[in-house]
Amino acid sequence: MTKLVYKPILDSEFGAAYEFFRLYMKHVISEAIGWDETFQKKGFYENYPPQWLFWVHRSESKVGLICLKETPEKQHLHLLIVFEQYQRTGIATLILSDLIGREGAVTLSTFKNNLPAIRLYQQMNFQRVSEDEHFYCFKAG
Fold this sequence. Notes:
With 141 residues, this protein is an alpha+beta fold.
């Protein structure tokens, strides 16, 4: 499979990134805690600085979006979206493998009702390190 390339989003693309977040995460969030458009949009704009957002490309195709906060000690994956036409093609596994191959631990959290994500993280040998009412937190590396 072709190597993935991570391209920082442009400031002008931030709104489009939010629209993908809404499209792909609304059903999960709605089932877990309910969807409040104003709350979600405010949270996205305030908690995900544009410099943490990257389009994921394979060859010339835009295949997904990630939100990644990197520090010298770890990388925290806030968001992993693979666009529908590319799902179940191994792209999410490639993204996680790329992150695991870098320096430092990889951490992430997911809603407890996001079963496909949980299965993927477990298959990739992420260890569940904590949980709260709505989330599991995982770590690799």
